[in-house]
């Protein structure tokens, strides 16, 4: 019986490494670079296509707790992320090039992983143990095959933020600092009322790329900046351009986050967009300091597919129809880098257990990853939206605890539960 992982993104890379580290031969299929997706640029494994931030590292933040759980369970990708981090305040952001290159080198040099650069359009559901981790940019041919087995998929539009070079910026109009402290991790553009009004008016009227089947289906946590702006004049000031944390000196603040360890590139935080390239250069160039900005990557929009996990998955991430087939990553309806890594980790652990004749495990609900998986597979929604880790997903019993003690208790239980799982694997 062969063990196969399809997809070399975050989930697939983590799953393949978890399986291989347990001494099991695994074939990892990745169609890139033979065939690229709408968003990928390289053939590297674990390429980050949107932001370079994996979110908070604080335990009191759901995604921070998720990372802690993943590290305690031996996540290889999270360990590599920490090695390649760039300053980002309380968030874990990485040099995306160095991060994906290191993961690629680890995979290509692993004696138990055999890489096949090919597009998979058919799956042997009878004779192989398979992890489907093709992500939201699953090829049309494979998506059509999966629809026959799991029903029609859902989709939403996602967008990417632009990246500019530091040397092209007018730093005299900006300042380094954090939103609530003086740490020099972010580059900030302060806006007065006139700056903001001019930018806002041009932004909502700018030309956008319009996909042929575009019907304004977006993931709420990753809305294009122009879509946020269309909700009202102050919408951006309560979102990515909030001046909160800087006192009352500014009407709005644009933040740029370091993209690489050398600090030569910066990403416009929260500026994911579907504007045409020409319009991005024109409209974003209205912001003080960006007048002559050199864009090394423009923002873009792409369509993300996922399935109704509540119809097809068990809490072990095995499909109900085929116990030897697992799903991991954003194709399950989870959303976010850390979430993809953790679902890849869980699927990899369980594939290894199934291969050895052991019973796959369900991660306890008293953990953040367990709570997320439980929501994905047990919600009763007809068309569930992509879900990130959050404290609203934790078991009902915790809501009987006073709010000021609830997180503390759940975090305590999470660490204990993850340690028990670690002892099992």
Give descriptors for this structure.
Elongation Factor Tu (Ef-tu), domain 3, FAD/NAD(P)-binding domain, five-stranded parallel beta sheet, globular, alpha/beta, six-stranded antiparallel beta sheet, 12 helices, single chain, 425 residues, 16 strands
Describe the structure.
It is a single chain. It is built from twelve helices and 16 strands. The chain is an alpha/beta fold and 425 residues long. The protein folds into two domains: 270 residues, FAD/NAD(P)-binding domain (3-Layer(bba) Sandwich); 144 residues, Elongation Factor Tu (Ef-tu), domain 3 (Beta Barrel). The strands form four sheets. Strands 10-11-12-13-9-14 form a six-stranded antiparallel beta sheet. Helix 2 runs parallel beside helix 12. The radius of gyration is 22 Å and the shape is globular. The protein starts with a strand and ends with a helix. The mean pLDDT is 92.
Fraction in helix: 25-40%
Helix-strand category: alpha/beta
Strand order, sheet with most strands = 10-11-12-13-9-14
Q: CATH superfamily membership of the largest domain, which one?
A: FAD/NAD(P)-binding domain
The main pleated sheet reads as: 6 strands, antiparallel
Please report the total strand number as a whole number: 16
Strand fraction equals 15-25%
Q: What CATH architecture label of the largest domain applies?
A: 3-Layer(bba) Sandwich
- Radius of gyration using CA atoms only: 22 Å
């Amino acid at each position: 019986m062969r063990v196969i992982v399809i997809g070399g993104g975050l989930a697939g890379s983590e799953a393949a490494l978890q399986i291989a580290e347990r001494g099991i031969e695994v074939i990892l299929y990745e169609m890139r670079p033979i065939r690229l997706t709408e968003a990928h640029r390289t053939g590297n494994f674990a390429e980050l296509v949107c932001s370079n931030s994996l979110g908070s590292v604080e335990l009191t933040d759901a995604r921070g707790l998720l990372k802690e759980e993943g590290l305690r369970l031996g996540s290889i990708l999270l360990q590599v992320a920490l090695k390649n981090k760039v300053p980002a305040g309380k968030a874990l952001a990485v040099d995306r090039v160095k991060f994906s290159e290191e993961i690629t080198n680890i995979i290509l040099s692993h004696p138990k992983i055999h890489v096949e650069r090919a597009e998979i359009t058919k799956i042997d559901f009878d004779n192989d143990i398979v992890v489907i981790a093709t992500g939201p940019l699953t090829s049309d041919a494979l998506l059509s095959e999966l629809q026959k087995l799991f029903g029609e998929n859902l989709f939403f539009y996602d967008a990417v933020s632009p990246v500019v070079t530091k040397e092209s910026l007018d730093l005299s109009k900006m300042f380094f600092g954090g939103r609530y402290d003086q740490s020099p991790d972010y580059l900030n553009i302060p806006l007065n009322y006139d700056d903001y009004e001019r930018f806002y008016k041009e932004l909502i009227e700018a030309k956008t790329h319009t996909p042929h089947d575009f019907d304004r289906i977006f993931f709420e946590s990753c809305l294009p900046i122009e879509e946020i702006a269309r909700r009202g004049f102050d919408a951006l000031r309560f979102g990515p351009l909030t001046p909160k944390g800087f006192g009352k000196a500014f009407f709005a603040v644009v933040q740029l986050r370091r993209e690489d360890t050398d600090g030569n590139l910066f990403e416009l935080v929260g500026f994911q967009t579907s504007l045409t390239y020409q319009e991005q250069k024109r409209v974003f160039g209205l912001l003080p300091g960006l007048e002559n900005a050199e864009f090394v990557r423009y923002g873009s929009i792409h369509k993300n597919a996922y399935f109704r996990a509540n119809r097809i998955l068990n809490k072990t991430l095995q499909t109900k129809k085929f116990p030897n087939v697992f799903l991991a990553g954003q194709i399950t309806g989870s959303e976010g880098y850390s979430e993809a890594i953790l679902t890849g980790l869980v699927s990899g652990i369980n594939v290894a257990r199934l291969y050895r004749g052991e019973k796959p495990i369900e991660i306890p609900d008293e953990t953040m990853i367990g709570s997320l998986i439980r929501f994905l597979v047990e919600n009763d929604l007809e068309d569930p939206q992509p879900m990130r880790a959050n404290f609203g997903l934790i078991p009902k019993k915790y809501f009987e605890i006073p709010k000021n003690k609830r997180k503390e208790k759940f975090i305590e239980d999470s660490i204990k539960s993850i340690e028990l799982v670690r002892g099992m694997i």
